[in-house]
Amino acid sequence: MADAAVNRTGSQIQRVLIAADKFKGSLTAVQVAERVTAGLHRIAPQVEVESLPVADGGDGTVAAAVAAGFERHEVRVAGPLGDEVTAAFALREETAVVEMAEASGLQRLPAGTFAPLTSSTYGSGELLRAALDAGARTIVFGVGGSATTDGGAGMLAALGARFLDEDGEPVPPGGGSLAELATADLTGLDPRLTGVDVVLASDVDNPLTGPKGAAAVYGPQKGASPDEVAALDAGLAHLATILEKSIGGRAAEYAVAPGAGAAGGIGYGALVGLGASFRPGIEVMLDVLGFGPALSRATLVITGEGSLDDQTLHGKAPAGVAAAARAAGKEVIAVCGRLALAPEALGRAGIRRVYPLTDVEPDVGRCIADAGPILERVAERIARDFLT
């Protein structure tokens, strides 16, 4: 463990930093921090605990920003099917955190409903416009958990772009209509975008199209059949071709750039239309949330998420937290609902030890249903092992 501060009696003053993501379907990142804190203090009440809920750009990103001191702003926007929903972004001074899933995420669809061909990102564009209206000069645009595969065309349309068919009429919403696209005009985009730094924050670096593209990799998760995946992929390729005619070769370059395929291709729309720069979501969010100063105060870091598995190692929040903590010489342990990584992989990621809920309650169903109380019991174990 890294060196701890020492009080006047000569004993260590331990400071724990809880920087965990949500347990999806069970606990928000804020609730994870609350439950871990409660368990730690039950065994080691003297320990100082600092909570910094984290996210990697996907759903929960705005909540993490609000927990870190950003102000929550709510606005009515179009959901993925066009119905109006209340979405939120976070603002601190001139920096906004906008989460596309707030407007265009799978959670905005009725339970059990998928609409892979018709879901639109129009509401995400409205959310970005609201952030501009609020005075944002830097926008961290977190993308993930989308219901959409429209290449960001809906988002850009909400910000003033025009996507027209052969008759000069706007193409219908959704990726399934991109095949009808005849012309694209980005000259009407909100002029304020030229004076704003937009950061595309994502945990995936897929290109727009092809076997590793937005439709092929993520379309099935949004209910797309194999034929629909093929149609969506072709539509995204057609969008890039039409945009190349409109704005030149950079449209084709952005189509193969890392992050273009994020969130159904909204990453491409952000790169080509908003002038966004791509950065791994967890790196961006750690900067925005003030992780560095919090890390400097800590002697032990606790991170985690619902499932620690192979995906964790590819840009998810716990891997980012562990990498930063290891670079600072701080010891890292993790909590999770389910563990599917070998000790060697955890060691390479910088995580010394993991405490899964299933070690306390082997029944996975009960772990999901009673995650909070079980997580407190896990935290008690951590306190006994590390803090007493």
Automatic annotation (TrEMBL):
GO molecular function: glycerate kinase activity
Residues making up the signal peptide according to the UniProt record: none
InterPro entries, A to Z: Glyc_kinase_flavodox-like_fold, Glycerate_kinase, Glycerate_kinase_RE-like, Glycerate_kinase_sf
Tree of life domain: Bacteria
Any single GO BP term: organic acid phosphorylation
UniProt KW keywords: Kinase, Transferase
SUPFAM superfamilies, sorted: Glycerate kinase I (SSF110738)
Stored Pfam families: Gly_kinase (PF02595)
NCBIfam families attached to this UniProt entry: glycerate kinase
Record family assignment: Belongs to the glycerate kinase type-1 family.
Name of the molecule in the record: Glycerate kinase
